[in-house]
Structures are given as structure tokens and as C-alpha cells.
Amino acid sequence: MTAIVEVKDLRKTYAGGFEALKGVSVTIQAGEILALLGPNGAGKTTLISTLCGITQPSSGSAIVGGHDIQNDFREARRLIGLVPQEVALEPFEKVINTVRFSRGLFGKPRNDALIERILRQLTLWDKRDAQIKELSGGMKRRVLIAKALCHEPRVLFLDEPTAGVDVELRRDMWQIVEELRQDGVTIILTTHYIEEAEAIADRVAVINGGKILLVEEKAALMKQLGRKVLRIDLTTAVQAVPEALAVYDLELSADGTSLTYTYDTRAERTGITRLLQDLAGAGLSLRDIQTKESSLEEIFVDLVKEGAA
Question: pTM to 2 decimals?
């Protein structure tokens, strides 16, 4: 794969001294979907704003499609589409004119067939002559997406594109994302809906405190999702794990009343049957057994905690 976005040691410090980006480095391949996850204030929007030329970096570099975002801004920005969090639209303008105008800003010739196709994809064609102020919040969000797509970008940034919108728009949005992927468009999205990252992303990046904590293939993360935890509640507290059970790498709770066993659900053998037999052989009596499977959300939360430590 060819890299289309290359970020090296990117930093952003605001006038008040707040350091929003602390040496971010990441390479994004052409045609992939990268999900950028992080809590509020992690630096997601600052990173996107910097790559899109809305915010100037304090230091470091970034290349989009071979063009430096500072020294060759116009060519770099021509390749980028952005769907921002904020809905900022001219309230008295018609939908179709709003989208046409955005295409013109990038020096693209008029293309009514393309505009119609995009508006139809987003269920906006019937609203093409309506003023923006007449639209619902969800429809306004669709207009933002249409504006971002109208100049045929090769890199599309989606900053919380489905936050607070209806289920139908979310479904339409991901259908469009899949169609864009098939056309070779690279997509970077931030989302609080972690299940969406699981469903559509090729890779997942976790950012917190202005730092990238992890960039991982989704398939590799899914291996962690295959892990399950078995909690064994004992009828009587113990002081320590019996030596006969050392092979299972059990964790004893602080109060000595439960044991935790981690295993891989996709392994040929989980070892649970033998463990239960050995527990009885060690003289331990069980009160209850519970299983719990890791989720991407839990992995994300753990990473953020580790990064903040």
C-alpha cells in the first residue's frame, strides 16, 4: 500500500501554553479506513484541524498526497474533504447552491450530475431547493457531508459525523463510506460509537493527552476481543493461590474470596474443565462462576488509563 497521509512529530501549543498535540506521528495508507478514538479533549479535533489547514502546527510536518500541508497548502487541501462537528451553514441559502458553491471553492468545474448523485445518496434531492433554515438537524448534517464530497476528495475526514443524529442517517453514512472505500478514498473518522469502529475500520488509533497511544490493525485488536475472563467466587476466603494451581496464572482478589482466570475462546482448549477439577482437588469450594468477554471499549478505556498514568 502507498501512504497518502504522513504525520511526523506534529505539535500544537496554543497561546495560553496548552499543548494540544505532543509529537503525533502516524502514517495512513491510501484506501484504508482509520478510526481515531479518544476521550473529549484528547486532541482528535486539533489533529484533524491541523491536517486540514484550519489550525497551524507549532512544529513537525505532515504530507497529504505528496503535498506538505504548510508549504503546499492549496494542493494538499484540494485532496481533503472535511465533515466537521459543528453545523455552520448559511441559513437562507438553498441546499443545492450551498453544495455547488463548495465545489467551486476548490476550483472544480460545474458538475450537476455529480451533485445530483451525492444529494440522492444522502436523501437530499427532494430538499435541493429548500433553504437551510427549513431543514432538521439531521438534514443539515447531511448537507455538511454533501459539501465535503462535492469536490471529489481522496482523503475524507469525518469528525464525529454521526454524533446526535438519527439511526437512518448513521446507516446512510456508513453505506456511503463503504462506497467511497471501494472508490479508493482514504477515510479518517473520529467517533464515540466504538461499535462503528469495530464494524468499518481497517485500523484503530487511540489518542489521549495529545499523544498517539496505539495504532493497530483491527484484526489484531480482535484477537484481544477473543479473550474471556472467568471469575470464580469461593465459599471460603483463602490467603493465597494454592501452588497446585500456579500453572493457571490465577489472580486472587484482595479479600481472598474470588479467583480470576483469563483464557482464549478460540483456543483448541480453554482449560476450564481441568481447572475446575484441580480447584476441587486443592480443596476449594465454589460458590459461583461468572464469565465476561472483553470489548473494544474496555480495551480503549484501559489504554487511555495507561496513557494518563
Answer: 0.74
